[in-house]
Every structure is written in C-alpha cells, then in structure tokens.
Amino acid sequence: GVRGYPTIKWGDPADLQDYQGGRSYDDLKKFADENLKPMCSPKNLDLCDDEKKAEIEKFQSMSDADLNAAIEKEEQKLEDAEEYFKSEVQKLQDRYTALSTEKDEKIEAVKSAGLGLMKAVKAAKPSGSDEL
C-alpha cells in the first residue's frame, strides 16, 4: 500500500496503519512514545477491555469460512467507499471543467464586445488638464 516516499506504516503487522503525523524527530518521538507499545490484540488479550475481548472471542469462535466472508464483506465496504469517492470527485471535476469553459466563453464574449477598444479610447481621451 505504499504510494509515496517516505511512507511510514505502524501497528499490528496484519493491519498496518498509515502514519499521518509530522516527520521531524520531535513529532516522531512523541508519536512513538504515545502509540508504539503493546496493544490489545488476540495475542495480548490482557491489554484489552471487556468489549474488545468479547469482540475478539466472537471472531475467534467463527469458522474460517465465516471469518473470511466477514472480512470480504468489510473489505468490499472499503472498496465501495473508495469507488463512491472517486465517482463523486469525477463529478466535481466535470462540473469544474464545465464552469471553467463557461467562464472562458463569457470572458471572450465581453472582450469581443469591445471592452479592450473601450479601454483604449478612454486612455486616449484628453485628461481634462494639460498642466504638468
């Protein structure tokens, strides 16, 4: 999932997260101190609250087929969200293109109606006072 450099990923190796913070030493140190420690997971149940323990136990009790189906269902939700985002951004891009074209046409119409010539005539007119 690396799309740029430097990409920093953190967390459980089975579910790495993108690091979105600053890249200075102080920012990275603060993030590491606050987040890079043992976390609640199936291998560290003692670090989990009751709610997370129950959720982990529910997933552990599922058959492999059911767990795979649940994972696919949730991954499909992520893909659908990404696809929806892309389609909406494309709609915005299309609207932007249409508005830009419309603006250019209006500007061209104003210019062809004589705006430049009007400005030239105004500039060429005597200014009412010939004093230096």
Automatic annotation (TrEMBL):
<protein>
    <recommendedName>
        <fullName>Thioredoxin domain-containing protein</fullName>
    </recommendedName>
</protein>
<keyword id="KW-0175">Coiled coil</keyword>
<feature type="coiled-coil region">
    <location>
        <begin position="64"/>
        <end position="109"/>
    </location>
</feature>
